[in-house]
Give the backbone structure.
Amino acid sequence: MSERPHWLDQPRNVKRLWRGFLVVLALTVAAEFAVALHPAFAVEALFGFHAAYGFLACAAMIVGAKVLGIVLKRPDTYYEADDE
Amino acid sequence: MSSELLVHPGLVLIAGALALPALRGTARTAAVLLLPAVAMALLWLLPDGLAWQVQWLDYRLAPLAVDRLSRLFATIFLLMAFGGGLYALGQPSRLELPAAYFYAGSAVGVALAGDLVTLFVFWELMAVGSTLVIWSAGTRAAYAASLRYAMIHLAGGVVLFAGVVGTIAATGEATFAAMAPDSIAHWLILIGFLVNAGAPPLSAWLPDAYPEGSWSGTVFLSAFTTKAAVYVLLRGFPGTELLVWIGLFMVFYGIVYALLENDMRRILAYSIVNQVGFMVAGIGIGTEMALNGAAAHAFTHIIYKALLLMSAGAVLFATGRRKCSELGGLFHSMPLTTICGSIGALAISSFPLTSGFVSKSMVAQAAADGQLLTVWLLLAAASAGVFLHAGIKFPWFVFFQKDSGLRPPDPPASMRWAMVFFAFLCIALGVWPEPLYRMLPYPVHYQPYTAAHVLTQLQLLLFSGLAFFVLLGYLKRTRTLTLDVDWTWRVALPALARGGGSVIAGVLRASGRVLAAGTQRLSRVIAREQGPRGVFTRTASITGMALWVMALLLGYLVVYYLR
């Protein structure tokens, strides 16, 4: 990284990284055909369960946090008066 | 028996901490690096069992007791002291390192305490040491935060003390052994432990206080208090079902607040609560697999969390900034910090080949073995969430994202070596978990690297990564903080006190007016009766007096003769 410090800044390379990432994602799901999972629960035996669950759980947490933030967010100077 | 000659490793560190302020230059560097090493050697020379026994009042105390569990925790505390000491060598504050070693030594003391009295003493020393570490950051915000921190911990200490006294009074024994929350005293002990673990409802003390430490202070703070609490819960309350739910709450609380947070070190502080939640849940499950998992996770967590905070500390050291909205693009000029921080981020996310993978999965495995579907599903969701808030969010917003234009260099050598050392441990423990597994309290029958486990974990993590980047718009940094329960003692209670104060003042003023009116009326009556013209104080002439006396005597004479 030090000899070519800016390669990550080029949009072309960022796009390549995205493509590579999507390929890896597809591969992890496709690998279920090759690897015998040992599901401990029935729900775990569904095809691509961990992938779908990971995505949906995270989406739910992000949206949940967003909703909570509407009520609880304050400017970051909120407490400063007490700390002075 | 030569048992009296055995040296307490924690006391070695504490004694060294008291001597540190007197040392300068090379002697100080040598002492900082050698003290934890010497203590570590002494720890591993101790035989299993009660090394020290003391008769105190009517109780038999064991201030130095060693078994597998206590040795594991004392080891990681000393390892942490070494790594943190190396990292903090360049810290200009003369108070912070001694305070940190005092704090670390007390944590070792907690891990090696065989009785409740010794445990309590070291517990309180830990509170003192950690408060001084926060305080030594030297800012007004740190001072205020250290006072709030001390208040919570002293309150927790009082509850713990009440529980200890109650237990000793009920049983006549001071031994620290497994209990259940079956009496008021045991409940008080459990609550005292949970306060330090960062459990609800007081959890906000942690993200409030820790990020106010100096760039090196927060590294120490992340390690000892919460993990000492995990240790005492492991020993004191294994299999207490309530802990499963408390742990799961902590896990999600940490994720949600970390997602909302803008301060990079507060993100990591919330992430401590999240990680301790996994351990507390494991303790609640209570099987050998779960307890092993909780202990192993505490061990690996201390290392990768310290590494993450070291990388954040390096950024703070170099830029003086701590808000994600003001950072970004630092990978250009801080490659080593970026790599080490990312290794820590992968380890906390339990990526295969990192330390988190071999420890956290044991807790999930225990939930699966016990067919606890709800617990297992929540733990899996939380694992995905860890990658979200600590695994990607922290490195992304600090080292990558939009370029902030900042080009600070990597930190000085001592900080770089500390980061490299801990990054190495994160990978080494992940690749070669056997040494850690051998140190765990129970025999390990667990193989983390099965094709199925690696694959399912990769799916879970990579798809949470996808969720992060797809929903990046929702995660935009704003210059905000998020209200937490510390709002109650920073805003609500003071306002209530001020409000209550003005009510009391009003009552006093009103009653003062009533009192004044009463006093005036009374003084008017007194003035009328006792004044110069009053009945009782009027002056009369001497002639008049003599006349009256004569009349009295005459009257007496008349009565005498008439009788």
